[in-house]
Amino acid sequence: MTASEFEIIRRWFTPAGPGRADVIAGVGDDAALLAVPAGHELVVCMDTLVAGIHFPDDTPAAAIGHKALAVNLSDLAAMGAEPAWATLSVTLPESDTAWLEHFSRGFFQLAERYRVQLVGGDMSRGPLAVTVQAHGFVPAGRAVRRRGARPGDLVCVTGTLGDAGLALQLALPGDTPLRLRLDYPEPRIAAGMALRDHATAMIDVSDGLLADLGHLLETDGLGAALHVDELPRSSGFLAALETAGPGCTTLDPELPLGAGDDYEVCFCLPEDSLANAEAARAALSCPMTVVGVVEAQPGIRCYREDGSRYLPSACGYQHFTDTDGPD
Ligand code: ADP
Ligand code: MG
Fold first, then answer.
1. Could you say which ligand is closest to the alpha carbon of residue 88?
2. What is the pLDDT of residues 12-69, one digit of tens each?
3. What is the DSSP letter of 197?
4. How far apart are CA 65 and CA 163, in angstroms?
5. Which residues of the chain have pLDDT under 50?
6. Is 88 in the pocket of ligand 1 (CB under 6 A)?
7. Cα 226 to Cα 197: distance, rounded to the nearest angstrom
8. pLDDT digits (tens, 9 = 90+) for 222-259
9. DSSP secondary structure letters along 191-208
10. What local confidence, expressed as pLDDT, does residue 261 receive?
11. What is the number of other CB atoms lying within 10 angstroms of the CB of residue 209?
12. Which residues are in the CB-under-5-Å shell of ion ligand 2?
C-alpha cells in the first residue's frame, strides 16, 4: 500500500465514532472480524457502479457515494434484512481530494442513518468504479425470498415508479426532485423488514418492474396480470411529463413498467387479499399500491383500465445484450 492510499483510507474511509458492538475488528486490520448475533442468518450482497453506465458522468461525488451504498441496502431490504456492515472498493483515475471528500460524505451520511459500519475495502487506480458489499441480518428462517409466491397472491409495490427513468430520459439537472430520486435513491429498509410478516416473495425494482417481477415469478414458473393504469406515479412524474409536451405521453406507462433505478420493492401478498393488503399497509412506513395478481400461467400480461391488453415495449435493462442498457 502506498502512502497516499494509506492517507486516503485514514482520512476518508475510516469511520468516526465508537462503531457497532458486533465489529471486533474493522478498517485497518488485514480483514474485518465480525460477530453475527445468535439466532440470525447473515445476508450478503454486492453491487458495482461504473461511471457512464450506472450513473451519468455529471453525477456529483456525494450522490455516487450515497448510491453505491443505497443500491446494496436495497438488496438487503428486498430480503427483509436489517443492515449492519459494508465493505467498499473504490477505483479512481486520480486521488482528487475534493471528490473523495464529497464521496465519503455521501456514503457515510447514508451509512449512519441505517447504522451501517464500514469495516474494510480496497483502493485502486483506474477508470472510476465503486463496488460495495453489504451485510445484514435476518432472524433465522425469516428472510423473504424471490421464490414463494402463489397463484392468487396480490402483486404490490412500495412508493412510486418511473421517477428515476424520467430524470434520465429528460436529462434533468441535479436539483430537480426527479433527478434527486435518480441520484439519491432511498432503500426501503423499514418496509422490507415489516414485510417479513406479510409477503410471500419480494424483490427490489432496480431494472424495472417488468424485468424484476419477471425474475420473481420465474423462480416458481408463475405469471401475473398487471394493471398498468394502477402503477403508482409521483406528482413530479406527472408534472414533468406534462411540461415535456405531447411527444412524451408515451413514456407513461412505459417508464413505470420498464425503467430501472427507482429501488422500490415489489412483493406478493397471500390470497385473501384485502385483509392482507390492509394489514401490510398498516405495517409499512411508506405508501404501497396493489398493481396486479399472480397467475399460474407463466408470463406477465398487462391490462389497461378498460380491460384491453397493453403490450409494453420495454423489458428492463440488461448488460451483455445489443439492445439495452445497467444492472
Ligand atoms: P492489504 O494490502 O493487506 O490488502 P490494504 O492496504 O488494501 O490491505 O487495506 C488496509 C486496510 O484498509 C484494510 O483493513 C482494508 O480493509 C482497509 N481499506 C482499504 N481500502 C478501503 C476503503 N476504500 N474503504 C474502507 N476500508 C478500506
Ligand atoms: Mg487490499
1. 1
2. 999 887 899 999 999 999 999 999 999 999 999 999 999 999 998 889 999 999 999 9
3. G
4. 20
5. 1, 3, 322-325
6. yes
7. 24
8. 999 999 999 999 999 999 999 988 878 889 999 999 99
9. HHHHGGGT-SEEEEESS-
10. 94
11. 32
12. 122
Contact indicator for 293, 155 with CB cutoff of 8 Å = yes
**Bridge partners for 310 per DSSP:** 302
> What cell was used for 124?
485502486
Residue 121 beta carbon below 6 angstroms from any ligand 1 atom: yes
CA of 14 to the centre of ligand 2 (A): 15
Q: Residue 283 C-alpha to ligand 1 middle, in angstroms?
A: 40
3-state secondary structure at position 295: strand
Report CA(68)–ligand 2 centroid distance (Å). Answer: 19
For residue 239, give the C-alpha cell: 408534472
DSSP 77-141: HTTTPEEEEEEEEEEESS--HHHHHHHHHHHHHHHHHTTPEEEEEEEEESS-EEEEEEEEEEETT
* Nearest ligand, CA 91: 1
pLDDT in the model for residue 108: 97
Distance separating alpha carbons of residues 27 and 41, to the nearest angstrom: 23
Q: Is 3 in the pocket of ligand 1 (CB under 6 A)?
A: no
What one-character-per-residue DSSP string does 149-164 give? --TTPEEEEES-SSHH
What's the CA gap between 49 and 70, in Å, rounded? Answer: 11
Other beta carbons within 10 angstroms of residue 27's beta carbon come to: 19
Are 63 and 110 a contacting pair, CB within 8 Å?
no
- 292 and 227 in contact (C-beta within 8 Å)? yes
Question: How far away, in angstroms, is 136 Cα from ligand 2 center?
Answer: 22
Q: Is the entire prediction scored with pTM above 0.85?
A: yes
Closest ligand 1 atom to Cα of 27: 14
Which amino acid residue places its CA nearest to atom 24 of ligand 1? 121
Distance 99 CA to ligand 1 centre (A): 19
Give the ligand whose atoms come closest to the C-alpha of residue 5: 1
